[in-house]
Design brief:
heterodimer, A: mainly beta, 11 strands, B: 6-stranded mixed sheet
Chain lengths: 112, 111
């Protein structure tokens, strides 16, 4: 099983809303990632968790708040987003930093 | 910083072979990956190669790595219309923390 699942699939939110994106994997992977992808562009790294600890934050605005409750789950809490934050948000995981990285199907976010 | 480059577009006829090329600059790359992304979908890992390998074959896919020239290619044999998608190459650095993506190559397969 090489599946990473993400919910919701689509999300529309206003600029004053608070919402969360969820990601789950049951491959025993210890590294989990959040990427942001704008249309016709490659994914851009946002956050990296290693063994449930935040190891990389790529200068992401504080309106994005990641959380890793356990080794299988990764959340991205959203608050006071801007329309330019509309994008496909992809979660990924890997066994550790040396192995293959598997992506979920993404959450397509629209901020109005 | 690291840079990964790909041509933007490739068009082939159904049944032909497709070759998608990628160049990278980071000589400390450990793993190099090929991902496929269909419209509205996430990234599907197609194959990956460790930097001490020259070639890897998996059914219709052949990956060639020229480490001296920092050139990676993906060959798809007997290309089908279902292969139409954007293909991203990516490299993982020596620290293993980050995946650097190329800009993606849009493959169009004509019947």
């Amino acid at each position: 099983d090489t599946e990473v699942t993400q919910t919701p699939k689509h999300l529309v939110m206003g600029m004053t809303n608070k919402k969360s994106l969820k990601c789950e994997q049951h491959m025993g992977h210890r590294a989990m990632y959040w990427y942001k992808q704008k249309a016709k562009k490659p994914p851009e790294l946002m956050f990296v968790y290693s063994y449930e600890k935040l190891s990389i934050n790529e200068s992401v605005p504080s309106r994005f708040s990641p959380e890793c409750p356990n080794s299988s789950l990764l959340n991205l809490h959203l608050h006071a987003l801007q329309p330019e934050d509309s994008a496909l948000y992809l979660c990924a995981s890997s066994q550790d930093f040396g192995g293959a990285m598997y992506f979920g199907p993404g959450t397509r976010l629209l901020v109005l | 910083g690291e840079d990964v480059e790909q041509s933007l577009f490739l068009s082939v006829r159904e049944g032909d072979s497709s070759v998608i090329n990628c160049t990278y600059t980071d000589s400390s790359s450990t793993y190099l990956y090929w991902y496929k992304q269909e419209p509205g979908a996430g990234l599907q890992l197609l194959t990956y190669i460790f930097s001490n390998m020259d070639m890897k074959q998996d059914q219709r896919l052949t990956v060639l790595l020229n480490k001296k020239d920092k050139h990676l290619s993906l060959r798809i044999a007997d290309t089908q219309t279902g292969d139409s998608a954007i293909y991203f190459c990516a490299e993982k650095d020596n620290a293993g923390n980050m995946l650097t993506f190329g800009g993606g190559t849009r493959l169009m397969v004509k019947p």
